Amino acid sequence: YGHSNQLRQARAMGDYLIVGVHTDEEIAKHKGPPVFTQEERYKMVQAIKWVDEIAPGAPYVTTLETLDKYNCDFCVHGDDITLTIDGKDTYEEVKTAGRYRECKRTQGVSTTDLVGRMLLMTKAHHSNIDEDLDYRKHTDNFGKGPKGHSPWTGVSQFLQTSQKIIQFASGKEPQPGDTIIYVAGAFDLFHIGHVDFLEKVHQLSERPYIIAGLHFDQEVNRYKGKNYPIMNIHERTLSVLACRYVSEVVIGAPYAVTADLLDHFRVTLVCHGMTEVVSDKDGSDPYEEPKRRGIFQLVDSGSNLTTDLIVQRIIKNRLEFEARNQKKEAKELAVLEAMKKLEERH
């Protein structure tokens, strides 16, 4: 949702947003192993509602040539630094030409921190006990290099506000003639499996209005176990709202899809993917009511990617990721040092 927020801000600066997405090869060279393949990433970026077009295989360093090729007036980046493998600012050329704009980096999330949460595999961030030392140690150390920590890669708390939700929400009410479709789940680490599922659901009707019910963290932890969800309910809300197929989100939906809920939203259809449906606390089927009404449908997304598999990919790459994060941190700190020295001179 940090990336989505950047794209939202960029789109607001102009009329048409083209997003350049790098190849796996480019990312591996400059940053370390990507979590998703380029094909997955192309599709995920395309599914964000502020994106008009993607430029696959965009070069890591944005040049004037690239901007001209796609007929762009300017490019936008967050106010964090991106550096090439040899430590140069990747936006130098476009900045000099006056074709660079900056947007605010989203507070409270970084890919680096999410990776840290996955590697931990502790339940600390779901218990009310602050005493889980592993997690405390992680949040204390993560993103701290030998000399303090980088404000871009470090861990900070995500604070939800109504303003953020409004910026992400479509604000569209269902219209007469819309098919109101309800889907529910954790939607944790919003990924290509979710996108494929929602796209398939979206194709079920001429005029779909998709409502996504998100379960509270404790509920997700009950049926998923381990340290799931990796992202809390506030983070998951924004991630799902950023998807172009979703019209509305229920924040903290009941696990059982009740008659009340179906009547309240005037739901025509309830869909679920091919993943296992865990019984409710009392052992009942959470989809009993929509099945009784004959409005329940299983939808095969055709994707086998799950949040579990992403976590496995990360753990498999764990050593490479940890090395990558330390190097990234060190590079950012070096730039900060240089910037401080410059300021002292002036």
Automatic annotation (TrEMBL):
Q: Which Pfam families match?
A: CTP_transf_like
* Annotated signal peptide: none
Residues in Cytidyltransferase-like domain copies: 1-115, 183-274
Identify the keywords attached in UniProt to this record, alphabetized: Coiled coil, Lipid biosynthesis, Lipid metabolism, Nucleotidyltransferase, Phospholipid biosynthesis, Phospholipid metabolism, Transferase
An example of a GO molecular function for this protein is:
ethanolamine-phosphate cytidylyltransferase activity
Q: Where are the transmembrane segments?
A: none
Q: Which GO terms describe its cellular component?
A: cytoplasm
EC id: 2.7.7.14
Q: Which residues form a coiled coil?
A: 316-345
What does the record give as its pathway?
Answer: Phospholipid metabolism; phosphatidylethanolamine biosynthesis; phosphatidylethanolamine from ethanolamine: step 2/3; Lipid metabolism
Q: Which SUPFAM superfamilies match?
A: Nucleotidylyl transferase
Q: Name one GO biological process term.
A: phosphatidylethanolamine biosynthetic process
Family note: Belongs to the cytidylyltransferase family.
Q: What is this protein called?
A: ethanolamine-phosphate cytidylyltransferase
